[in-house]
Amino acid sequence: MTSIELALVVLAYLLGAIPFGLIFSRWLAKRDPRKVGSGNIGATNAMRAGGKRVGLLTLLADIGKGSVAVALALSLHSTHAWFVPVVALAAFIGHIFPVYLRFRGGKGVATMFGVLLPWQPWLAVIAFVFWLLVLKLARYVSLASIIAGWSLPLAAWGLGLSRLEVLACLVFAVLMTQRHHANIRRLRAGTEPRVGERAAAEGKA
Length: 205
Prior knowledge:
- The chain is built from ten helices and no strands.
- With 205 residues, the protein is mainly α.
């Protein structure tokens, strides 16, 4: 690993770790998303804290930071096959475990799409299609996100990508599922709110 490659991996993590949901919520709504709903800093909970504008800005920024990190890696034209997947993982992990917030971050869905767009756009399309279909049929954002995540390693394998790329997609799926552990419990209990419904209690949002 060259010093430039190492620096870019670290930069990708630091970019991914920027808590845009917290920044936009505080700036535009004077609220802290960590004290609202699920306490998550992602776009869905940021929307609860600050409204649709905050949610949309957070979504775009979380996608953008992943895309920027991977686009920088691709522009380097590294000869190492592992480099771009590692940068993609670094940005994704930065969002989930941000150093700025004592490693308590979001669930990684938007940033996952962000890293895929410049790197493996077909995987991004496949995951988005699964997300949209599950959301339309079941109306659970969490379930749609989890299934979209698990579509990635299967699609990567089916498209003949390298073992390292399949492994990176598997890490996306595993970590994203782990971050949805509370949602999974509510899905099993039948208490997870569907799209358009309000949680019975603020803490269950």
